[in-house]
Amino acid sequence: TKASQATTYTKTEVDTEITNRSFGFKNYIINGGFDVWQRGESGTNGYQADRWFLSTGGASLTTEKLNGSVKNYMRLTVNTVGSVIMQQQIEDARTLNGKTVTLSFEIDANTTTTITSLEVYIQQKFDNSGIGDTITPIQTIDISAGGIFSTTFTLPSSANVLRGINSKLTTNFKIGTQTGILAITNVQLEEGSVATPFEQRPYGLE
Do the Cβ atoms of 173 and 76 come closer than 8 Å? Predict the structure, then answer.
């Protein structure tokens, strides 16, 4: 048998196919339930729970996996004042281009959480030059009572901006000049203006 000739696609066609393909899952965050800790279940800064990166901004902090009977948390203990940022990077800054998205998360409602507010925002970073980068308006959320929180963003459309090899879309949680303890779980970033229940994906797939 003679092999059929392979079809050649342009980069634009391939990018469009990847962007538009539906994988059947709504949450763009991986390990939003903080179940997977392949680097160990405690640490300071850098990568901690899988896919999650912590920048200390001069603060002294420790992180650990808080095992619950139903769900797990990432617990951060901030010992000195600094701008701690917890973030997850999604490949390709054009992901969710021009769309309305909702970010939701849960804060441990018991008395161990003493951080009172979080600044949340989403950033499109196209390469290391900073050209074309965007950041959504920062939303400051009072988390002192614990519970489930959500906020909605509209991402800029960046179709005409070139993408570098470091292109990424980042979801950011910033602890300002506060010290204390924060326990967070069930982080979800989804399309639309309404927060829906946290998506429970199979552990192996996650």
Answer: no
